[in-house]
Amino acid sequence: MRGVDRFQESLFTVRKLDDFVPASHPLRPIREQVNGALKRLDGLFAKMYAEDERGGRPSIAPEKLLRAMLLQVFYSVRSERQLMEQIQYNLLFRWFVGLTMDDAVWVPTVFSKNRERLIEHDAVVALFNEVLSEADSKGWLSGEHFSVDGTLIQAWASHKSFVRKDGDDEGDGTDFRGEKRSNDTHESTTDPDARLYRKGNTASQLRYIGHMLSDNRHGLIANARVTQADGHAEREAAKAMIADAVQAAPEDAQVTLGADKGYDAAEFVEALQEMKVVPHVAQNTSGRRSAVPDEIAQSTGYAISQQKRKLIEQGFGWAKYIGPIRQVMVRGLERVDQLFVLAMTGYNLVRMRTLARLAATGPLRLQET
Known about the structure:
Blueprint: H1 17-20, H2 27-40, H3 42-48, H4 62-74, H5 80-89, H6 91-97, H7 108-120, H8 123-137, E1 145-154, E2 162-164, E3 186-188, E4 195-197, E5 205-215, E6 221-228, H9 233-248, E7 256-259, H10 266-274, E8 278-281, H11 294-297, H12 300-308, H13 311-321, H14 333-361
Parallel strand pairs: 1-7, 7-8
Antiparallel strand pairs: 1-5, 2-3, 4-5, 5-6
Helix pairs in contact: 2-8, 2-14, 4-14, 5-6, 5-7, 8-14
């Protein structure tokens, strides 16, 4: 018997949003982890806003704001406007953010303005640290053995915006062939924090550099930050991140750091040794002498570190293919840094979901230096 093509909505419904989300949906364990971390950040959120007694219009709840920003990373949503559109009609998005079917969705400009408050109080960094603390409590971090690397991030600015700082440009900036341009004399009018930079066989573009420190046990990201692009940024950021890791490690810990050949510089290796960090840096012997001692390079731990450091590329790949890091759609160093740390938080959450599923089937295999 043929069914009738009729659409008639019920006046009332007794189903909850949670009923529409399958019990096996991959966002369920992630939402549980996120909610636990956000609950522990309640003290920080209370300091971010004026007391209720003073009155005023309530802003977007920071918990909902952060969940919505994570959704934007998970589902590769390009803009806040598209994100608000998705939340309007997507029941899964409403459920994850914490909105009911009757709640109004925010105006995109209001959402973007509220996001700025998170930068002022480092709320995204605090969320990253809480997620990492949860991973540590489950034994998924070694706390001793790390890898470091950097990646280029294309800025949301074009070559045409890169003009002389003194304003002594001829023409409208569209024809710059044959003109000598450098970061000392030129600056982008669209994103002044971006720098003209090239690495290897890539073309010169306005860029930032994203840096990651990963834990070797399961490849979780232990630290992440963005700096302006220059030839020394990767090693300087690596020293700062491993210094934080050394400070957090137990006193008797033997901290190691794996890295590629770009970090094989005498100044960098000496700095690691001063911090009592074993430099498991890939030796660069192409027409030069490596700064890494041969006795370290011949050790078993060194070989394992060189194998494990490739896990960090998975984080970069995920952040660029799934996340918004290939070319950021925000401007300014602080905003790019916030987006990068948020993407690494999302990567850790996805990886922790996988680790939890594997742990439920049996003990996880560990291999450390």
